[in-house]
Amino acid sequence: MESQQLLGLMTFALVSTVSPGPNNIMLMTSGANVGFIRTIPHMLGVVLGFSVMVALIGIGLMEIFTTYPVAHQILKSACIVYLIYLAMKIAMSRPASNNSLDDYKPLSFLAAANFQWINPKAWSMAFTAVSVYNVSATWHGILLVSLVFAVINIPSVSIWTYAGQQLQVFLSSPSKTKYFNYCMAGLLLASTLLMIV
Predict the structure, then answer these.
(1) pLDDT (tens digit, 9 = 90+) per residue, 122-133?
(2) Which of 8, 58, 137, 171 could form a disulfide with 177 if both were Cys (CB 3.0 to 4.6 A apart)?
């Protein structure tokens, strides 16, 4: 890959990973509810899960959707159902405390990694990256695209989680946290529906 094309890939990776979407909204929500440290497994799940997704799409998953278009429609339907479920969980969650059994629970590493497969924005980013920046469809090209996203995604997820953690100062009461979670749940649904439409 030429240096100019690599710079283009890095720019695309930065813009697409730092812009609002389901991953970043959930990371901000987690940072606001449980802080940066407890959100790290979620962050790592996003970074590594998406990189693996890019690699697998580059290897040949795109061919499945080309051959069987109905599989893509099934995936879209699953995305909508699961994201509605996640939005409801966020809306109903409470801030972390020492004496509550219903504390907000951030996504685990595996849950965040698996979430990439039903995240419409992740699919859009992965398809674009593989088709635009690995035109020759080589193994080393696929690995490079995947690696660039892994490296660029680290500061992106960190920024959103840190921004959420900084909101903890303003979310000093349960009622403020409740309304914040309602807003984040609504944004999660809105960002997903925009990607699907």
Answers:
(1) 988 888 888 888
(2) 171
